[in-house]
């Protein structure tokens, strides 16, 4: 019975409950207009609707050592009409530094032309409130038969985003929650599609971003085995 209870706890972590800190955004290239979700506003230390996000405000919250790199990424994105991704630090209005990754994909108009980019900020900052998730992560080898493929998916994200094993698990858990897809099924499909990627390094992160944001659709489309 103890094993059943532990399995139920894991399902809550990787299912609909215990949400990962994630904020959504949209960015229009033409007028460099930003739209933030309430969660992303709070991530920066603001109440929902308190401010209108701008590129200047966005950059003001970047860690001083990361600001120039992120600004260059945004400039390149606008000039080339490409989505952007990044791992960097932000500093909220309370002075707290948060470690985040940004994953995005193109935003299209009705004619199919790229008009901007949209995606997510994932807060990777580990805090005391996340101790339970860390404990559950350490118990997964004894509780999930397909642990090996989860470890493969974690390893791939660790390499691409240069994050720790715990942070990689949080990203997978976020997508599992967001898409209501079993963690091991999501991980297996992610690994399968990563193996088909071209070897060209400059495009690797963009390809991984796209797969991470859309892989659940292929899981749902496949017949149950």
Would you summarize the structure shown here?
49% of the residues lie in helices and 17% in strands. It has 225 residues and is an alpha+beta fold. The longest helix is centred in the C-terminal third of the chain and has 21 residues, at 201-221.
Using brief descriptors, characterize the structure shown:
225 residues; alpha+beta; Beta-Lactamase; Arc Repressor Mutant, subunit A; 2 domains; 5-stranded antiparallel beta sheet; 49% helix; disordered N terminus
Please write out the topology:
Blueprint: H1 2-14, E1 22-28, E2 33-36, H2 38-43, H3 55-60, H4 67-80, E3 86-91, E4 97-108, E5 114-123, H5 131-139, H6 147-161, H7 165-179, H8 183-194, H9 201-221
Antiparallel strand pairs: 1-2, 1-5, 3-4, 4-5
Helix pairs in contact: 6-7, 6-8, 8-9
Walk me through this protein's architecture:
By secondary structure, this protein is α+β, with helices and mostly antiparallel strands. It has 2 domains: 22-123, Beta-Lactamase, CATH 3.30.450; 141-201, Winged helix-like DNA-binding domain superfamily/Winged helix DNA-binding domain (Arc Repressor Mutant, subunit A, Orthogonal Bundle), CATH 1.10.10. Helices cover 49% and strands 17% of the residues. It has 9 helices and 5 strands. The protein has helices spanning 2-14, 38-43, 55-60, 67-80, 131-139, 147-161, 165-179, 183-194, 201-221, and strands spanning 22-28, 33-36, 86-91, 97-108, 114-123. A 5-stranded antiparallel β-sheet has the order 2-1-5-4-3, sandwiched between helices. The longest helix has 21 residues, at 201-221. This is ANTAR domain-containing protein. Residues 36-81 form the PAS domain. Residues 130-191 form the ANTAR domain. GO terms for molecular function: RNA binding.
């Amino acid at each position: 019975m103890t094993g059943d209870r532990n399995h139920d706890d894991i399902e809550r972590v990787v299912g609909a409950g215990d949400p990962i800190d994630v904020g959504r955004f949209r960015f229009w290239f033409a007028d460099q207009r930003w739209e933030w979700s309430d969660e992303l506003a709070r991530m920066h230390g603001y109440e929902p609707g308190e401010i209108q996000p701008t590129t200047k405000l966005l950059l003001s919250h970047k860690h001083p050592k990361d600001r120039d790199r992120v600004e260059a990424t945004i400039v390149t994105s606008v000039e080339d009409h490409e989505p952007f991704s990044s791992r960097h630090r932000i500093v909220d209005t309370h002075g707290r530094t948060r470690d985040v990754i940004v994953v995005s994909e193109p935003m299209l108009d009705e004619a199919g032309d790229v008009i901007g980019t949209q995606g997510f900020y994932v807060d990777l900052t580990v805090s005391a409130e996340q101790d339970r998730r860390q404990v559950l992560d350490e118990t997964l080898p004894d509780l999930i038969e397909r642990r090996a493929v989860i470890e493969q998916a974690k390893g791939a994200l660790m390499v691409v985003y240069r994050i720790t094993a715990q942070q990689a698990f949080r990203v997978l858990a976020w997508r599992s929650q967001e898409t209501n897809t079993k963690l091991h099924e999501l991980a297996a499909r992610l690994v399968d599609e990563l193996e088909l990627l071209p070897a060209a390094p400059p495009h690797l992160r963009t390809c991984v971003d796209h797969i991470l944001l859309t892989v659940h659709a292929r899981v749902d489309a496949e017949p149950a085995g």
